[in-house]
Design a protein that fits this description.
65% of the residues lie in helices and 8% in strands. The protein has 153 residues and is mainly alpha-helical. Helix 1 (15-38) crosses helix 5 (104-125) and helix 2 crosses helix 5.
Length: 153
């Protein structure tokens, strides 16, 4: 192995690279649960899950709570509407704004997928003991907070 200066980026040791690759790998592997049997994309699933959790969200803010860009959200919202899983209501006070919520069909599809997603997650984290799991959650929280602080600087 060759020597590297301390100012060189070695991608396999670079935390942002490792984390984004792990997140992508996990997301793609988990997506088989809802892609294959329910024809739901990753962006659609994120929106379904958030709306199941929050009941009703402002369409403008859905990107920030799902960590997706505006165009990806827009396409996913349209697909969910076309499938009859999503209800879009105009804001009475602001005609440009609207709120999203799940239809009964949307809630039903979410309730079919959620237990499978939780089982998949349980299998994923089964390699961690309870202490490692707690450490992982603590580390994720710390890094999340640090990124927020650094983003404001």
């Amino acid at each position: 192995m060759t020597e590297h200066s301390p100012r060189e980026v070695m991608l396999n040791l670079f935390v942002p690279y490792r984390m984004v690759n792990l997140a992508s790998t996990i997301s793609n592997a988990c997506s088989k649960i809802y892609k294959d049997d329910f024809d739901i994309t990753i962006p659609e699933w994120r929106i379904l899950a958030r709306l199941a959790e929050h009941e009703r969200l402002n369409a403008k803010n859905i990107g920030s709570v799902t960590f997706m860009d505006k165009s990806k959200v827009s396409r996913a919202v349209k697909l969910l509407e076309d499938k009859g899983f999503l209800l879009k209501e105009k804001d009475d006070k602001d005609n440009r704004a609207s709120y999203l919520s799940l239809t009964e069909e949307g809630r039903a599809i979410y309730q079919k997928i959620a237990p499978r997603a939780l089982d998949w997650e349980k299998q994923l984290i089964s390699v961690l003991d309870s202490s490692e799991y707690r450490d992982l959650m603590r580390i994720i929280e710390k890094l999340d907070s640090q990124v927020a602080i650094m983003s404001k600087e």
